[in-house]
Amino acid sequence: MNRYILTLTLIIFIFAGFSSAEDFSAVNFTLDDIDGGLFILEDHLGEGPVLINFWATWCTPCKHELPHLQKLFEQYEEQGFLVITISEDTPKSQSKVKPYVRSRRFTFPVLLDPNGDVLRLFQGSSLPYQVLLDRQGNIIETHQGYSPGDEKVLEEKIVKLLEAESVDE
To answer: What confidence category does residue 50 fall into, taking pLDDT thresholds of 50, 70 and 90?
Structure first.
């Protein structure tokens, strides 16, 4: 019985640590952006928190979430906060991404991951999927899905990260 409890406790500890994702570093990646440029994650670390958001043009919850991310980006960009969105559209539907982004006037970087390689690196399985990093590139948390109000919880976490990072300077 004690061995069972010890094993169960260890499993819970491992998964609890993993779900909060603290002390795990993001995997560096390089992707094309919608304008044909290259984006390398590690080149954008160090200024402030980074939110990586995985989405697709066919994903209705993603379409509801993106305008909120644009507002957060605009509000906290000068403090070093960066929003990176990564389209999971396949090569077949990828031609819709740039017109969609331009028509909504999104100004954050939009990257293309047509084979889902980067989504898998971050252990995402469905969209939308977010990974919040501190400025050193440590994964603070991941979040799957979108419901109205999620953006308020996200904003609180961004503000706390910005405050903590300003104290560290």
So the answer is: very high
Location of structure tokens 């979108």: 146
Contacts with 70 (C-beta within 8 Å, 6 or more apart), sequence order: 83, 104, 105, 106, 107, 108
36: domain CATH number is 3.40.30.10
Q: What pLDDT, on a 0 to 100 scale, did the predictor assign at position 168?
A: 63
The residue type at 10: L
Residue 33: inside a domain: yes
The Cα–Cα gap between 21 and 131 comes to 9
Per-residue pLDDT tens over the stretch 15-35:
333 344 445 788 999 999 999
Torsion of CA 7, 11, 16, 18, to 10 degrees: 140
Closest to 40 (Cα-Cα) out of 27, 31, 49: 31
Q: What is the DSSP letter of 46?
A: S
Nearest to 84 by CA among 54, 124, 129, 116: 54
pTM of the model: 0.84
CA distance 168 to 98: 38
